[in-house]
Structure formats: C-alpha cells, structure tokens
Amino acid sequence: MNMSCLNERLSIAASTILSLWLCLSGLAAVIGNAVVLWLFYKNEPLRTISNRFLASLCVADFLVGLVIDPVWIAIRFATQPQRTHILKQVINLLWIHTTAATVFNLCCVSVDRFIVIRFPFRYQDIMTKQRCYAVIIIVWLISVFLPLSRILVDNRTNIESLWFSLTFITFVLPITVVTLCYFAIFKAARKQASRIKRENLQNSNKMNAPVRAMQNYKAIKTIGFVLGVFIVSWMPSIVVSVVDYVTASDKCVDHKLAYVVWPWIEAIALTSSAINPWIYCFRNGEFREVLHCNFECRPPWVTLDSNRN
Predict the structure, then answer these.
(1) How far is CA 264 from CA 76, 121, 173, 238, 259, in A?
(2) Distances (CA, A) of 289 to 58, 207, 280, 283
(3) CA 83 – CA 265 distance, rounded (Å)
(4) CA nearest neighbour of 94 among 142, 147, 19
(5) Distances from the Cα of 285 to the Cαs of 21, 157, 219, in angstroms?
(6) What is the pLDDT of residues 144-172, one digit of tens each?
(7) 119-134: per-residue pLDDT in tens?
(8) What percent of the chain has pLDDT over 90?
(9) Entry pTM
C-alpha cells in the first residue's frame, strides 16, 4: 500500500493565506472586543446582569485574538508538528479551551435572555449578581479544566472517542440548548411586541408603556445573529470531527483531515471571535449609544480647557 499520502502538508501558499487570515481576524477580535470591554468598564449603566454575560463572552473572544490566533500561526502554519509532538498537544488543549469558553458563554447569554423574556417579573430574583458571577466562574473553570481530559488519554482509539465526546459536550449539547432557548424566547418576544404595538395604536397616550419588552425583542434578534454566526463558523468543525471519527481506520483520509483540511476549519471557527463584538455594537442600542457618546460627545469644558492649553 502506498503511504506517501502521510507526508502531505499544507502548501506554502495555503499556509500564507491562512496566516494572513488569522492575523486579520485576530487583530479585529482584539480591537472589537477591547472596545466593548472598555465601554462596559467605563459606563456603569452598561453593567447589567445580561451585559455581564456578554462581557464574559467578549473576554473569551478577546483571548482568542490576543493569544490563540498568534499561537495557531506560529505552531500550525510554521512548524506543522506531528501528532505526537508536544506542540500538537498544545494545539489540542488550546482548541478545547477556546471552544468550551466561547460556546458555554454564548449559552449563558442566551439562557439569560430566555429568563428575561419568560419570567420578566421574577428575573431580578432568579438572576442575582451573585448567581451571575457564580455561573461565569463555573464556565471558566470548566473551560480551563476540560482540556485536561486530553492529557489523560494516550491510546489512539480512546483519543478518537474522546474527541467525539468533547464535540458533543462542547458543541452539540450547548448549541441544542441555545437553539431551543432562542426559538422559545423569539416566539415570546414577538408575541409581546405585537401586543405592545396594538396597545400603543389603541391609546396613543401610553407610548411610554412597557418599552422594555421591545428592547428585549431587539436583544433577542442580536443573539440570533450571534448564534447564526457561531453555527456557521463552528458547524464545519463538528462535521469534520464526525467524519474523522467514522473514517479513523483510513490513515490517508485521517491524515489529510488533520493536516490539510482541519487548519481551514480552525480558521473559520476562530473568525467568529472577530465578528461577535461588531454585532453587539451595531445591533445593541445601549452599546451603540454609549459608543457614539464616548467617541464623539465631548463636554464643552473639555474643549475650553484644551483651547486654554
């Protein structure tokens, strides 16, 4: 049997394109998420429970651009290590951590919005600040310790089973929960918005009635965009993981998936970290208003003081 296929690697052109891709997406992720986190830190009105979950997601995306993307470029495209190389183990650990941190934070954001819509009068009692912090800490602890499962597995067959299990835990299960929550809260928010419109048409003096529900409806649409981007970005990885698990006995296919196809899948998945913050800024009215005010609104005395100098 000709095993020359086991020597196949990314071409220089492909490595260059992927490196440039990750450089640009990493830079966008760092800048975009840094701006959102800065706005969250500088503006107290933004520090709501819901926005704390968004801030946690932004931290995960920021770390992707600041740490993960450069490491991927240096390791994956510069050295392209063998499966048994220590750098390959580093890539695997970073991949598990990145996936877990992003998807679990996204899951928290969506479940939080579900509680807001489903239990609007009990939300303050259900989602307290202490519970919010507890959930965020648990998510980050899981994303840090979950990669340790990869270190404990050495056997080739067990590794394939582990990757399949991790794919289910870090992607299939959370995204299923998020999708169900999304459709439930979208349906509830749409019904709520329709009722408010009817009430406003019947009585123009009640235009200031429950506008919060309309804001929730817009927030749900934002989460829908984030969810859509995430699924489009990460779905190829789950497809390739399943194919790799099914065709594990074919060494040529397995090698090509690992060294030729998978780097492109990684680049697509990591790009979601660069897109998410821009969705928040353009779709979230609170962040958009604060962003505009912080970068364009200056008090008169600032101009006066600057003129004196």
Answers:
(1) 11, 46, 24, 13, 10
(2) 18, 21, 12, 11
(3) 17
(4) 147
(5) 30, 50, 9
(6) 888 887 777 665 556 667 777 777 888 78
(7) 888 888 999 999 999 9
(8) 15
(9) 0.79
